[in-house]
Specification:
BirA Bifunctional Protein, domain 2, 2 domains, 7-stranded mixed beta sheet, 5-stranded antiparallel beta sheet
């Protein structure tokens, strides 16, 4: 059952230029995406925000678990109702917005790795190159015929006791900065940036979003990547993203577009 929004979240969100029309907060749930999907299917309005202090079954892309200990991070999902043309760019857009929100709130300037990782490459601490935040967009169509997308994002704010396989590739804002961080401020700045970048898409300015993604991902482009095609590993050099958000990769015999699946950066 949802409970009143904690003061730090409530105070910060009240200062967002266009605040979410409704915010639901849960001390612990399975996944904010799960709850948001049920709400979206039931007709919840665009912009509704689902928040949790902890998730028991948080997840990322390809069914991976997203470890979500209480009080250590931001676990949130926005309900959106984009057109089909805009939906393919939501993950790219969210990556840009989350990086911008983190920078506005803390001064830290994250980088992006296709398709949905917010990372830190240059670190004052021991965790250089580790994952700071992740994004998961999932869509559906209600019985009434209306389509929706739930855009989930998880941000590691405070150090936590992660399982070994997660600890090896994760970091947190407080680890990187060496100081305490206001979770409410980070959330508010990320929500404000998400709404602003989403409006850009809606108003036909996708190029601005894509250019911002390229800037944040500049250090990753030019690197070799590997993925599976028809059950076999293939590789090439990551060059760019196209107007749909697909990764553009050069190989000896030409250019290919990678639109989904697991990509390993080498």
């Amino acid at each position: 059952m949802n409970t009143p929004l904690p003061h730090d979240f409530a105070a910060a969100l009240s200062r967002v230029p266009t605040p979410p029309p409704r915010v639901l907060f849960y001390p612990e749930i399975t996944s904010t995406n799960d709850v948001a999907a049920r709400l979206a299917d039931g007709g919840a309005e665009e912009g509704c925000l689902v928040l949790a202090d902890a998730q028991s079954l948080g997840r990322g892309r390809l069914g991976r678990s997203w470890v979500s200990p209480a009080g250590a991070g931001i676990y949130a999902t926005l309900i959106l109702r984009p057109s089909a043309a805009l939906a393919s760019l939501l993950t790219i857009t969210a990556g840009v917005a989350i990086a911008e929100g983190i920078q506005s709130a803390t001064g830290l300037s994250p980088r992006l790795k296709w398709p949905n990782d917010v990372i830190v490459e240059e670190s004052i601490g021991p965790a250089a190159g580790r994952k700071l935040a992740g994004i998961l967009a999932e869509g559906g169509t209600s019985a009434a015929g209306s389509s929706w997308v739930v855009l989930g994002f998880g941000i590691n704010v405070r150090p936590a006791a992660y399982p070994p396989e997660v600890a090896a590739r994760a970091t947190s804002l407080e680890t990187e900065l060496g100081r305490s961080v206001d979770r409410g401020l980070v959330l508010a700045e990320c929500v404000a940036a998400l709404f602003a970048r989403y409006r850009e898409l809606y108003n036909g300015h996708a190029t601005s979003v894509i250019d911002a993604w390229r800037t944040r991902a500049a250090s990753m482009l030019g690197r070799r990547v590997e993925w599976q095609s028809e059950g076999k590993p293939v590789n090439g050099i990551a060059r760019d993203i196209d107007e749909t958000g697909a990764l553009v990769v050069s190989q000896r015999d030409g250019i290919v577009r990678v639109i989904s699946g697991e990509v390993r950066w080498m």
